[in-house]
Amino acid sequence: MLDNLTQRLAKVVKTMRGEARLTESNTAEMLREVRLALLEADVALPAVREFIAKVKEKSVGEEVIGSLTPGQALVGVVQRELASLMGADLGPEASQLNFATQPPAIILMAGLQGAGKTTTVGKLAKYLRENTKKKVLTVSADVYRPAAIGQLETVTAQAGADFFPTKTTDKPVDIALAALDYAKRHFHDVLIIDTAGRLGIDEAMMQEISAVHAAVKPIETLFVVDAMLGQDAINTAKAFSDALPLTGIVLTKLDGDSRGGAALSVRHITGKPIKFAGVAEKLDGLEAFDPSRMANRILG
Ligand code: GDP
Q: Which residues does the UniProt record annotate as the domain SRP54-type proteins GTP-binding (predicted)?
């Protein structure tokens, strides 16, 4: 079991009791521990560097109040800064979906295959039906994997929402437009569009999802990313963020044993709020994202 950050820093600061402030020199050694803790949590290096630079800027010269040791003071700065980077300063509404549009509000799901998109569509459909009483239609724009369409149909039925069948001979753009037309005529409040995901980033896939985006102009474009992806999350997030104007992130598989460093990497690249966390395979395993809790988890 790894030591948590407080324990690690406690070891470092044993030698520096009595210093009243955080200084360049006593901060440097502690920041090395913070850096290691973040790398162990699988945060990608560029995100670690940016974070350390921020903490350094905030902590040097900060008064140590009362009985706090410099180590405790630094842990405080690290925790606050990490929670802020996770979105704590954005306020609770940052994790809410935007419905301020003429219905149906369209939600486009993007992400690699296996990230949890289809499962998340089912979870969102259930969440929206139960919490907001919205009438939800789902459609799959994945024309390559009939099994994925079947999976969407199943989770949609479990969520008690409506499903628009996909003709795999049609183009993804035409499928999305047909579903939109159907949703308008049947007074659906929300249309959730699931899309094809490849195992890796690929240009054709990006063009295809960009074309769907341009055709239906979704109010929400959610990037679904597996928390277990670790450091690779940064490259995936960059590719999707470059191709699409993302509005939010869904971080899945947080019930796994990853420390969730992917959250920081993805925030670093996209700057978009993490709106939801996937915490189970089953359809009620979706939670509003909690930045402070995530910060504590990353710090171990
Ligand atoms: P897609 O290819 O992006 O549509 O991914 P799927 O929705 O098919 O999910 C891939 C696998 O991850 C499936 O076995 C899901 O049950 C599983 N999965 C998705 N979200 C979660 C989650 O939050 N927790 C866990 N434990 N499993 C998940």
A: 104-300
Instruction: Render the burial of 97-118: b for 16+ CB within 10 Å, e for the rest.
Output: bebeeeebbbbbbbbbbebbbb
262-298: pLDDT as tens digits: 999 999 999 999 999 999 999 999 999 999 899 888 8
3-state secondary structure of 276: strand
| Residue 164 bridge partners (DSSP) | 139
ipTM above 0.85, yes or no: yes
Tell how far CA 287 is from the center of its chain: 12
Res 265: pLDDT: 92
Structure token pair of residue 195:
């899309």
Of all protein residues, the one whose alpha carbon is nearest to atom 22 of ligand 1 is: 253
Residue 252 and residue 116 in contact, taking contact as beta carbons nearer than 8 Å: yes
Backbone angles phi, psi at 221, to 5 degrees: -120, 105
* Per-residue model confidence (pLDDT) at position 115: 96
Binding site membership of 238 for ligand 1 (Cβ less than 6 Å): no
Structure tokens at 88: 């704590």
For a mutational test of ligand 1's pocket, the pick from 112, 113, 119, 283, i.e. the residue with the most ligand atoms closer than 8 A to its C-beta, is 119
**Measured between alpha carbons, how far is residue 196 from residues 121, 183, 217 in Å?**
13, 21, 18
pLDDT of residue 3: 62
Q: Say if ligand 1 is within 6 A of residue 197 CB.
A: yes
Pairing of strands 274-278, 248-252: parallel
- What residues in the chain have per-residue pLDDT under 70? 1-3, 5-6, 9-20, 64-68
